[in-house]
């Protein structure tokens, strides 16, 4: 930890991706608005971002935008930007470019997914501390899990240094064997993020603009990308199906019961 007793004052914001339909949820409700342990999934993510001092929290909305907007309409610290059509995660984040140009996002920005309600403020704080203390342009948290299916893989070089994130659809058979994965917890120096997003292409198996390509672009620019293995395996579960939603709800309920017992 830094011993500087007079640190620079940072302004910190968050961008939460919340535009997806969630076809496999078998519901017309926006994916992030499905409830996990009594609260919409995206509300857990917004709460975690607030807990580490993010303001504003920018929600990138699309499918069912009015439902998401209506839920947060009284929240003064929440902004909304539309992603329509939806052309990938990089395209989603880029919808906040106008807010950045107006100076509303601050020096550093967390980028998180609205369908990951298991996120913990402690994990985000570790990510932020590492980002700041290392002087990185971008920092990502990773996790090592037994079954990496469905997640982007963390590719490292022969010295163990981060090289890039490879999405599952673009991975070789060898890369698919990697168990260190990307749970999509990111922190960026805001100016570097939006500079790199201008150069992201959609030359990949999905034909989409991947936010994950930003890390490789920043490395090519000679900038620092920091990696922290900050996400416990039991916290790595985004929600794509009703079954996964039920499992996440059970985990959150268990956490709430544990905390209640601690404070009893």
What is the makeup of the main sheet? Answer: 7 strands, mixed
Q: Could you give the count of β-strands?
A: 13
Residue runs with pLDDT of under 50 for 5 or more positions: 1-8
CATH superfamily: Spore Coat Polysaccharide Biosynthesis Protein SpsA, Chain A
CATH-scheme architecture: Alpha-Beta Complex
User: Helix-strand pattern, N to C?
Assistant: EEEHEHEHHEHEEEEEEHHEH
Structure characterization notes:
It is a single chain. By secondary structure, the protein is an alpha/beta fold. The protein has a single domain, classed as Spore Coat Polysaccharide Biosynthesis Protein SpsA, Chain A (Alpha-Beta Complex). The protein is built from eight helices and 13 strands. The protein has helices spanning 41-51, 65-71, 89-94, 97-101, 121-134, 190-197, 213-220, 242-262; strands spanning 12-18, 35-36, 39-40, 57-61, 78-82, 108-113, 138-141, 143-144, 152-156, 162-166, 180-182, 186-189, 225-228. It has a seven-stranded mixed sheet with strand order 5-4-1-6-12-7-13. A four-stranded antiparallel sheet has the order 8-11-9-10. Strands 2-3 form a two-stranded antiparallel sheet. The radius of gyration is 18 Å and the shape is globular. The chain starts with 11 loop residues before the first strand and ends with a helix.
């Amino acid at each position: 930890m830094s011993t500087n007793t007079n640190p620079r004052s940072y302004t910190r914001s968050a961008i939460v991706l919340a535009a997806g339909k969630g076809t496999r949820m078998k519901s017309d409700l926006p994916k992030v608005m499905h409830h996990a342990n009594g609260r919409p999934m995206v509300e857990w993510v917004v709460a975690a971002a607030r807990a580490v001092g993010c303001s504003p929290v920018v929600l990138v909305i699309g499918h069912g935008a009015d439902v998401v907007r209506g839920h947060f309409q009284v929240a003064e610290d929440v902004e909304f930007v539309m992603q329509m059509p939806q052309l990938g995660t990089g395209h989603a984040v880029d919808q906040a470019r106008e807010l950045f140009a107006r100076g509303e996002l601050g020096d550093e920005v967390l980028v998180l997914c609205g369908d990951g309600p298991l996120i913990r403020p402690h994990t985000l704080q570790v990510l932020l501390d590492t980002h700041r203390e290392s002087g990185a342009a971008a920092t990502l948290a990773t996790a090592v899990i037994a079954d990496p299916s469905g997640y982007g893989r963390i590719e490292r070089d022969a010295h163990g240094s981060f090289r890039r994130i490879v999405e599952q659809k673009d991975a070789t058979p060898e890369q698919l064997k990697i168990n260190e994965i990307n749970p999509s917890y990111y922190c960026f120096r805001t100016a570097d993020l939006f500079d790199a997003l201008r150069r992201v292409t959609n030359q990949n198996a999905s034909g989409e603009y991947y936010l994950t390509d930003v890390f490789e672009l920043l490395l090519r620019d000679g900038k620092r990308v920091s990696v922290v293995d900050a996400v416990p395996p039991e916290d790595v579960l985004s929600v794509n199906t009703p079954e996964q939603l039920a499992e996440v709800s059970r985990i959150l309920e268990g956490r709430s019961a544990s905390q209640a017992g601690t404070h009893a």
